[in-house]
Each structure stands twice: as structure tokens, then as C-alpha cells.
Specification:
By secondary structure, this protein is an all-alpha fold. It contains 17 helices and two strands.
């Protein structure tokens, strides 16, 4: 039970850290007129071209862009573009309102919309890279970045991203259904664990609130920066040269750790990014703080730094050049998420934090149910289990409806709350 709580805190810390990165990048992008203009210039030709030539393009160059023949149904249509915006909007609302990883629902949502798993992963990675490069461009306000720490970490991250991309592509070449089943299983395990922990955390917080105790803010949570046991001290005591030094500004004489642990950590983060398409940022923060003993300030700067390179390398070298990125989907998700993050962040000012926790737990569990119910049909199609096509399709349909009902309900509630309190929110903005 203690392991469950510690691992749950580990994953929740990562989800919150990744959400903070998403909010920061959205703020940087929307805070610059030049970057907003660039975004619009990139989007308009894609949208207008798709509206005019959707059918012709879908039938003439499918093998280049991942169209109907290659990675069905990765062809452009008005409906697909609108769905991509709505998916981005939902993820953005979760990220902005809850402050914990709405990006986790993107790949399951794309797969539920009919996109192949490998294409969903590649597209999500490209969407993260586009947001990172436009939102930061190695921004001068990255914070405290330890260059030696970042460089050694990226050696492992690039290797891990290469391995993750290779695994996905090999499985897809062997059997596209096997590829979908593998990605579905990974997401089901992660979302199931995180969802159960989030629900238990919500129930605990609700009991504490009922008892009159103070509730910890959902966006912050000081507990995520505490060390778990003495693991950081033990790892920093291991001397396998060369030793990488860091945190000179926070600890007299700085700290140091062997390059081996940095490369292994980077490899794990890169592997997760390459397989799941989540950028790896949700793992960097808890690994650095809980396991390696890096200060939170240095971790934040290094996390932003590594996401740009890890997501960029993985999306381009492991997916884009093989045709596993659907660019119009990525642009739609980017537009939707930028809007959703801003609305969600404002709603947190007028909504009790305990309510936000409950919605987050429900959203993550809905993602788990979605992927868990999609698995029997895929396993049955591969002959791993005996299940009729009708039963498999029914289970998958139940999972899809359950997922989109919960996410849509949450989105409607957040947007409704926003418009209901728009006067109060506008007053706070003018006062600020």
C-alpha cells in the first residue's frame, strides 16, 4: 500500500509538472503577437487547402501524407479537423483547470476517433513539439538550466526515443492491430493506475474538507518536491566517473551524480516519449526530484529544455519521415488546446479545488475505461482471446461513449462555469 501511494505521488507529480509546462508554453505563445500570427499563417493554408481539395488530395497522395491507403482514416475532412480541435480543447480544459496532464487523453481520444495508434502517437508528439518550439524557442526565461545535466540526460533521451519509435514501427509492420493493442495496453495500465490514485486522493481530500481541514491546491502541491526515502542520497553517493555537477546556486559546493544515472533516466523518459507520444515531460520532473535529488528550480528549466529536443527528435526522426504524422490534426489540436488552457486556468479562480480533483479523477478513469474496453476486440482480432466481433465492437463502443460523455460533460461544465462567471473573472483581470 505504501508503494502504491509513493508511486501514485510520483505519477501525479509528473502530471502536474507537465501541465505547468503546457500552461507556460500556451502563455508564451499567446502572449506574443508575432507567434500568434505565425500560428495563423501555418493554419490557414492547411484549412483552406483541405476545404477545397480534401477529396482530391485524399485520393492522389495518400502514401506520402498517410492517407486513406496507408494509414486509414488519416485523410483530411471537415469533420476530422473539427474533431481535432475539440480533442485539443478538451485536453486544454483539463490541463488549465485541473493543472494535471490533460495531454494524457489525446492519444486515446484520437484512437477512439478512428486514428491508428501509431499515427496518434506521432501526431501527438508533433503537436507537443510544435507547441514547445513556438512557445519557447529556447526562451531566455527557461530558468535555471544546468547545461551539463541537460546534455548528458539528452544522450539517454535520444537513445530511448529511438528505441520507442523503433518498437512502434516494428510492431506496426508486423501487424497494425498488434501495434494498436500494444499502445492501448500501455495507456490502459498508466491511466488505470493514475486514475485509481487520483480518485483515492479525491476521496481523501473530500473527507478532510468535510472534517474542516485545509485543502491543498490542485495546481501546486508541495508534496511533489519532497524526497522519497533516501534514494537521491544513495544515488549521489555512487561514484562512477565522470560525475556531473549541478545546483551550485542552491547548495553550497553544488551536488553531483554519475552520468550513468542521468543516461538511464534519459533513456526511460525518451522511451516513454517514443512509445506513448507524450513528450516525456511527465516523467522528467519526478525522476529528477524524487530519484536524482535535483532542485525543483533546476528541474523545471531542464524539463522545458529537454521536451523541445526529445519531442522534436522523436516526432521528426521516428515518425514524420516515415509518414506517421497527420499535420492537420496536430494543428487542430494545437488551436483547441491553446483556447482550452486559457479558459480552464480562469475557471480555477471561481471553482472549489475539491471539485476540480473529482473531475480529474473521472477524466483519467474515463480514459482508462476507453482503452480497457477497446482491448478485447483487438486481442480477439489477433486470435489471442476468443471473442465474437459483435461483442468486441460492443465493448469498444461502450468505452468510446463513456469516454466522450465524461470529457464532453466536463468541457460543457467548465465552459458554462466560465460564461456564468465571466463578469467576476473580467473584474479580477482588470483589478490585476
Amino acid at each position: 500500500m505504501n508503494f502504491f501511494r509513493q508511486w501514485g505521488r510520483f505519477m501525479m507529480a509528473g502530471a502536474r509538472a507537465h501541465a505547468r509546462w503546457e500552461i507556460k508554453m500556451a502563455g508564451n505563445l499567446l502572449g506574443s503577437r508575432k507567434r500568434v500570427l505565425v500560428l495563423l499563417l501555418l493554419t490557414v493554408p492547411i484549412v483552406m487547402g483541405g476545404l477545397v481539395f480534401a477529396d482530391q488530395l485524399g485520393s492522389t497522395i495518400p502514401d506520402i501524407l498517410g492517407g486513406k491507403k496507408a494509414y486509414s482514416p488519416a485523410f483530411y475532412s471537415n469533420g476530422i479537423f473539427i474533431v481535432s480541435i475539440l480533442i485539443g480543447l478538451g485536453a486544454g480544459l483539463i490541463t488549465g483547470c485541473i493543472g494535471a496532464g490533460g495531454g494524457f487523453i489525446i492519444a486515446p481520444a484520437l484512437m477512439s476517433a478512428g486514428i491508428k495508434g501509431i499515427l496518434a502517437v506521432g501526431t501527438d508528439l508533433f503537436h507537443i513539439f510544435a507547441k514547445a518550439i513556438m512557445g519557447s524557442i529556447i526562451h531566455r526565461k527557461l530558468g535555471n538550466v544546468s547545461v551539463p545535466l541537460a546534455v548528458v540526460f539528452l544522450i539517454g533521451a535520444i537513445g530511448g526515443a529511438t528505441a520507442g519509435g523503433l518498437v512502434n514501427r516494428v510492431l506496426y509492420e508486423l501487424n497494425p492491430v498488434l501495434s494498436d493493442a500494444f499502445i492501448t495496453t500501455i495507456y490502459a495500465l498508466m491511466l488505470g493506475f493514475l486514475g485509481c490514485y487520483a480518485m483515492l486522493d479525491f476521496l481523501k481530500a473530500r473527507r478532510a474538507t468535510a472534517a474542516g481541514e485545509a485543502s491543498v491546491g490542485g495546481h501546486g502541491g508541495g508534496g511533489e518536491v519532497a524526497e522519497l526515502g533516501g534514494l537521491p542520497k544513495k544515488l549521489q553517493a555512487v561514484v562512477i566517473p565522470p560525475m556531473v555537477k549541478f545546483d551550485f546556486d542552491f547548495t553550497p559546493g553544488g551536488r553531483r551524480i554519475s552520468w550513468v544515472f542521468l543516461v538511464l533516466s534519459g533513456g526511460l523518459v525518451g522511451l516513454a516519449a517514443g512509445i506513448m507520444g507524450v513528450g516525456g515531460g511527465f516523467l522528467t520532473f519526478p525522476i529528477f526530484v524524487y530519484m536524482l535529488g535535483v532542485s525543483s528550480m533546476t528541474t523545471v528549466g531542464t524539463d522545458i529544455f529537454q521536451i523541445v529536443f526529445t519531442a522534436g527528435y522523436a516526432s521528426i526522426s521516428q515518425y514524420a519521415i516515415y509518414g506517421f504524422i497527420f499535420y492537420t490534426l496536430a494543428m487542430g489540436m494545437l488551436l483547441g488546446s491553446l483556447l482550452g488552457i486559457q479558459i480552464g486556468a480562469m475557471v480555477t479562480k471561481v471553482v472549489p479545488e475539491i471539485t476540480i480533483r473529482g473531475f480529474y479523477a473521472m477524466a483519467v478513469l474515463a480514459g482508462f475505461v476507453n482503452r480497457f474496453f477497446a482491448l478485447p476486440a483487438k486481442l480477439g482480432e489477433m486470435g489471442v482471446i476468443s471473442i465474437s466481433k459483435g461483442m468486441g465492437a460492443t465493448l469498444e463502443t461502450i468505452g468510446i461513449w463513456a469516454f466522450f460523455i465524461v470529457i464532453a460533460g466536463f468541457g460543457i461544465w467548465v465552459i458554462g462555469t466560465f460564461f456564468k462567471n465571466i463578469g467576476q473573472l473580467r473584474g479580477e483581470g482588470e483589478h490585476a
